[in-house]
Amino acid sequence: MTPLSVWFARVLGVLGLGAALLVSLRPLVLAGVSYSWASASVLLALQVLLSILLLYAAEQRRLGSDIAEKAFPAVVMAVLLWCCMFVYWLRQLA
Description:
With 94 residues, this protein is mostly helical. Helices cover 76% and strands 6% of the residues. It has helices at residues 4-25, 41-63, 68-93; strands spanning 28-30, 33-35. The chain has a two-stranded antiparallel ribbon with strand order 1-2. Strand 1 (28-30) and strand 2 (33-35) form a beta hairpin. Helix 1 (4-25) runs antiparallel to helix 2 and helix 2 (41-63) runs antiparallel to helix 3.
């Protein structure tokens, strides 16, 4: 049976990649600020990277790999840090 954390990480990874794809096709406007490659390229690049790493770490955790013991918590913390960076970016521009 797959742990709930693996399912949650997979969902977050897929949602992150999907959101980055959607934003690349049509910019998202949040609080009057456009979230697109032109205005937030570093945040979007980190979003794509973290989504891929989250999917990889979830798969390694599902397989019971040794690397998952350190990679999974590190990626989860990196995603939380990205969320803080996103909120900071949004507050600076609004």
